[in-house]
UniProtKB/TrEMBL annotation:
It comes from Lolium multiflorum (Italian ryegrass). It comes from the Eukaryota. Residues 193-219 are annotated as: Disordered. InterPro entries: FAD/NAD-bd_sf. Gene3D superfamilies: 3.90.660.10, FAD/NAD(P)-binding domain (3.50.50.60). This is Uncharacterized protein. Residues 210-219 have a biased composition (Basic and acidic residues).
Length: 219
C-alpha cells in the first residue's frame, strides 16, 4: 500500500449516522426508524444489483444503468419520489459517483472496485504535501529519476494539453492544438482530465512504459 510509505494525513469518514441526520424541509429530523427502513431497502436492492452484475458478461455488453436495475427489482422505478428517498439516493449514488442512477453503470459500480479491492472504510485525505506526492511516488517507481529522486524521464510530460489522441494497431499518437507536442510510441498514456467536459482537453500527467509493460498508473 502506498500509504504505508507516504503516511498521508487522513481522517476516517464515519457515515453510520446518516439515518439519524436526515432533516425535514421545514426543520427538525425525520424519524430514524422510518429512514432506516428506507436505507435497508436500498441496501437490499444494491446487493441484488451486485449479484445481477456478477452474472453479466465481463465485456460490458450486457451492462445496464443503476436505474434500470432498480426497476427490475421494483425499487423506485420512476426515481426517488419523497424527500427522504431523494436524500438517500443522493448519498448512495450522486455523492459517490457524481452522477444519477440513470447515468451510472451497474457493472462498474456494483461492487465499487475501490471498496472491493481495499475494503469499505472511507478516509478523507488532507495532507499538506498535496496530491502530487502520490503521483510522483508511484511514477518514480518505473520512470527514470536522478539521485535526488526527481523524475527526469523524457516520457513524462507535465502541463501539456492534449487535444487529440489517435490509435492504430502498432502505436498511439497524441498532439496538442498548436502542434508543439507530438508523441508517438508504443505506450499506455495516463491522463488527468481538467476543466469542464465541454473543453474536451486533458493534461498529460504521465506517459507510462511500453505496451508490454502492463503496469498502469491511473490518476
Amino acid at each position: 500500500m502506498v500509504n504505508d510509505t507516504l503516511k498521508l494525513r487522513n481522517f476516517y469518514s464515519d457515515f453510520d449516522g446518516v439515518v439519524s441526520s436526515v432533516y425535514k424541509e421545514n426543520g427538525g429530523l425525520y424519524d430514524e426508524e422510518y429512514v432506516q427502513k428506507k436505507m435497508d431497502r436500498g441496501d437490499e436492492v444494491e446487493e441484488l444489483g451486485g449479484k445481477l452484475a456478477a452474472k453479466m458478461d465481463p465485456s460490458g455488453r450486457d451492462d445496464i444503468s443503476i436505474l434500470a436495475m432498480q426497476r427490475i427489482f421494483n425499487h423506485q422505478p420512476n426515481g426517488p419520489a419523497t424527500p427522504v428517498d431523494m436524500a438517500l439516493d443522493y448519498y448512495r449514488y450522486d455523492y459517490e459517483f457524481a452522477e444519477p442512477p440513470r447515468a451510472t453503470s451497474l457493472q462498474n459500480t456494483e461492487p465499487t472496485a475501490t471498496f472491493a479491492d481495499f475494503g469499505e472504510d472511507a478516509h478523507f485525505v488532507a495532507d499538506q504535501r498535496g496530491f502530487e506526492t502520490l503521483v510522483y511516488h508511484i511514477a518514480g517507481q518505473y520512470l527514470s529519476t536522478d539521485n535526488a529522486g526527481n523524475i527526469v524521464d523524457p516520457r513524462l510530460k507535465l502541463n501539456k494539453v492534449v487535444r487529440e489522441i489517435s490509435y492504430n494497431r502498432r502505436s498511439r499518437r497524441g498532439g496538442d492544438h498548436g502542434g508543439q507536442l507530438d508523441l508517438q510510441r508504443r505506450f499506455r498514456d495516463c491522463v488527468h482530465e481538467s476543466g469542464s467536459p465541454a473543453e474536451r482537453s486533458h493534461t498529460v500527467q504521465a506517459s507510462a512504459a511500453r505496451m508490454e509493460d502492463h503496469r498502469h498508473l491511473q490518476v
